[in-house]
């Protein structure tokens, strides 16, 4: 079977097995207990500060934001809905320990990054027309598009406010990194939208877009705590490199889940990315392949581009299943799985020159492993 390497050229690979985490010569092992504890620590420390920040918003934005975070339901009643994986807060707190500081030192950074991340989710859901997130209706569907935009803007402003309140030189350095990452994130979303209107996108363009949209903010998350803890720029830059490539691995897995993920686990519709005509990594890789299935897929997608979104959404399940099968036949499911592993390896390599406690290195490795084996 033929798949693609990172530059879009041919390499030999195994048949896709539907499990994007193992190869014949590599086995990823995740310490679930360690990762769960890190994620829970991130949620436990960050949530009270997040709630306090959201409480600063004028009504009804405070209520809308609380719904988005899963703290209340659509009727305003207390809720314990899924608030997300909390990977970014966990990374920010852990990065403070890289610098020899306490996890709490990274808390303003953890909260700021989580606010920016959720700003992007609110806007992305509206722009993409997503009606479900975390197993319930999205904000724009419940509260309307205007509130989704306003609350997203408010969360972005709060992120910078939270960071700058410390008034220290480290807080200023951290804010510069956050604003740069935010700009790249927005660049990535703009690229993502523009690619939907194009018949062809190169693998390189797709990786650049995903590096902006996902890698930049994860890079910031894993460096911002260290900066707040007094780390120098060389250390912070190495941590950013780890986070950037971890973000690319994260997005590659996300792209696989966007086509083949279990709706019960992801909280989204079956074939969700195909329904939105996204030029995600498996789609782009399939179109770049020289397998016969690639040309068949290209012909279908060219015809799809002439249809309205309403016509396209009327397709039955078999139509989307057929497109997913062609992507897999072209070798792109397996290639994307391998790309996640390549980015994972590059992320871990970036940590090698960084001096840090052994337990912190082990935890950063465990979080990286978690990203490439997750199911939602």
From TrEMBL:
Coiled coil: none annotated. PANTHER family: (2E,6E)-FARNESYL DIPHOSPHATE SYNTHASE (PTHR12001:SF71), GERANYLGERANYL PYROPHOSPHATE SYNTHASE (PTHR12001). Keywords: Magnesium, Metal-binding, Transferase. InterPro entries: Isoprenoid_synthase_dom_sf (IPR008949), Polyprenyl_synt (IPR000092), Polyprenyl_synt_CS (IPR033749). This is Dimethylallyltransferase. It comes from the Bacteria. Residues 1-26 are annotated as: Disordered. Belongs to the FPP/GGPP synthase family. The lineage of its organism: Bacteria, Bacillati, Actinomycetota, Actinomycetes, Kitasatosporales. Gene3D superfamilies: Farnesyl Diphosphate Synthase.
């Amino acid at each position: 079977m033929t798949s693609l390497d990172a530059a879009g050229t041919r390499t030999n690979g195994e048949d896709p097995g539907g499990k994007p985490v193992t190869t014949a010569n590599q086995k990823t092992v995740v310490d679930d207990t360690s990762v769960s504890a890190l994620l829970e620590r991130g949620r436990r420390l960050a949530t009270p500060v997040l709630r306090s920040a959201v409480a600063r918003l004028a009504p009804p934005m405070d209520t809308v934001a609380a719904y988005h975070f899963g703290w209340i339901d659509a009727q305003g009643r207390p809720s314990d809905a899924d608030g997300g994986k909390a990977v970014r807060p966990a990374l920010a707190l852990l990065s403070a320990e890289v610098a020899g500081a306490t996890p709490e030192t990274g808390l303003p950074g953890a909260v700021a990054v989580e606010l920016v991340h959720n700003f992007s989710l609110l806007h992305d859901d509206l722009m993409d027309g997503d009606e479900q997130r975390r197993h319930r209706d999205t904000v724009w569907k419940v509260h309307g598009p205007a509130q989704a935009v306003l609350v997203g803007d408010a969360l972005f402003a709060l992120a910078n406010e939270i960071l700058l309140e410390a008034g220290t030189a480290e807080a200023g350095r951290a804010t510069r990194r956050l604003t740069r990452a935010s700009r790249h994130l927005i660049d990535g979303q703009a690229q993502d939208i523009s690619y939907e209107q194009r018949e062809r996108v190169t693998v390189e363009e797709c990786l650049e877009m995903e590096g902006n949209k996902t890698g930049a903010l994860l890079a910031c998350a894993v460096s911002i705590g260290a900066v707040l803890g007094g780390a120098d720029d060389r250390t912070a830059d190495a941590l950013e490199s780890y986070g950037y490539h971890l973000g690319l691995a994260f997005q590659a897995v996300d792209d696989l889940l966007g086509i083949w993920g279990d709706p019960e686990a992801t909280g989204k519709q079956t074939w969700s990315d195909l329904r939105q005509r996204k030029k995600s990594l498996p789609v782009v890789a399939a179109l770049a392949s020289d397998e016969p299935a690639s040309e068949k897929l290209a012909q279908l997608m060219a015809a799809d581009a002439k249809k309205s979104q309403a016509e396209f959404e009327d397709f039955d399940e078999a139509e989307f299943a057929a497109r997913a099968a062609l992507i897999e036949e072209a070798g792109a499911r397996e290639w994307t799985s391998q790309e996640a592993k390549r980015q994972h390896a590059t992320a871990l390599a970036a940590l090698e020159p960084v001096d840090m406690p052994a337990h912190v290195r082990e935890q950063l490795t465990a979080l990286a492993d978690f990203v490439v084996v997750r199911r939602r």
